[in-house]
Amino acid sequence: MCHDCNDPIHSRRDFLKLSSLLGAGAALLPLLTSLQARAAAEPDAPVRIGYLPITDATPLLVAHNNGLFEAEGIQSERPVLLRSWAQVIEAFISGQVNVIHLLSPMTVWARFASKVPAKVVAWNHVGGSGLTVAPGISEVKQLGGQSVAIPFWYSIHNVVVQQVFRDSGLTPVSKPAGSAIAANEVNLVVLPPSDMPPALATKRIAGYIVAEPFNALAENLQVGRIQRFTGDVWRNHACCVVFMHEHDLNNRPEWSQKVVNAIVKAQLWTREHRAEAAQLLSKDGANRYTPHAPEVLRRVLAPEAAERAQYLASGAIQHQAWDDRRIDFQPYPFPSYTEELVRRLKDTVIEGDKGFLASLDPQQAARELVDDRFVRNSLAAVGGLKAFGLPDSFDRTEEIRV
Asked: pTM of the predicted model, to two decimals?
């Protein structure tokens, strides 16, 4: 990923830039003006995907690679690989791209802190992340007095890892470099995912929590071990979601429906062709969507059965009965998840001004953030949630157990 941004300073600047853009300030106005101008000048714009090269982007990239947008009767351009979340947001708000995958908590920030006119239309995947620690660490409490990296403050990784810390008697904090860290504290630092394995190897951090394949990469490089999968803490949680402009949803409903149709079909295809998906996403694939080796991606998308047994033995998986995949795919954005996410964000340590969260009602947020019209239609066309191995109901109860 971001081969030219592998330093913590970049991460800090990235967050500050996003804080400026999404803090309901004047910095957002020029981008929204550009978005409106692009929409007026190009009412029939093709699908333009913006993505980071992580497994979270899988359905969008599979849909492009397999010609699923064209099969729906709409045009698509080659997806645009972006180097940071700030670039993803900026390209999206300015209209350079019109379909993105975004960290689910980041959509809450964008929608309610700065009123970005966009909505979640589907989930991109579930699970697909883990807490990786130095080889000598066997218990979470051993992280006390040390630093652990997260990919972003507004991420499900930050929400989950703080719950894991608290359940182990540790207090998550955010302290400047060089500050003393108490034995019962864990200092959270933001790093680009690509910088996490080398930072762990050189002992700059004691662990990190992030999307795949960077957990698998640490395993392959033998610089870290999986302490816990996030999907084993919050069952079938969303990580990245599909975010689209309201002007497309309202003014191009047929086009929007076809976009979502293609993404849903890509998820189904990926579930049935996991090893093939790993190959096409890899640096050896025809489109070279990511810089990752196929064997690293296969470890995530198509792991050997023996690996699950090892994770059960180590405690990385503690809820065997959940029978969850390392990463899985289903598109429906369950309201209960968004509601619980908003509740938990209120109590999560986040740098910057998060005052907007205090008055945010979870149920109202779920209604305003998500537009599930299109994904419901797409699901109906492929056999409903049952096609993804789920009960045929749009209601569920969130299961969160550390």
From this structure: 0.94
pLDDT, tens only, 246-261: 999 999 999 999 999 9
Residue 398 counted as domain residue: no
Spatial distance between the Cα atoms of 274 and 112, rounded to a whole number of angstroms:
36
Locate tokens 């003006």: which residue?
33
Question: Do the Cβ atoms of 227 and 109 come closer than 8 Å?
Answer: no
For residue 228, the enclosing domain spans: 129-232
* Rounded-to-10 torsion of CA 260, 391, 126, 88: 20
- Helix, strand or coil, per DSSP, at residue 99: strand
Asked if residue 245 lies in contact with residue 98, where contact means CB atoms within 8 angstroms, the answer is yes
List all residues 6 or more positions away from 373 whose beta carbon is below 8 Å from its beta carbon.
none
**Which is more confidently placed, 208 or 24?**
208
Q: What is the DSSP letter of 43?
A: T
Q: Please give the Cα distance from 274 to 286 (Å, whole number).
A: 17
User: Rounded to whole angstroms, how far apart are CA atoms 315 and 6?
Assistant: 31
On whether residue 180 sits in a domain, the answer given is: yes
Distance between CA atoms of residues 12 and 20, nearest Å = 12
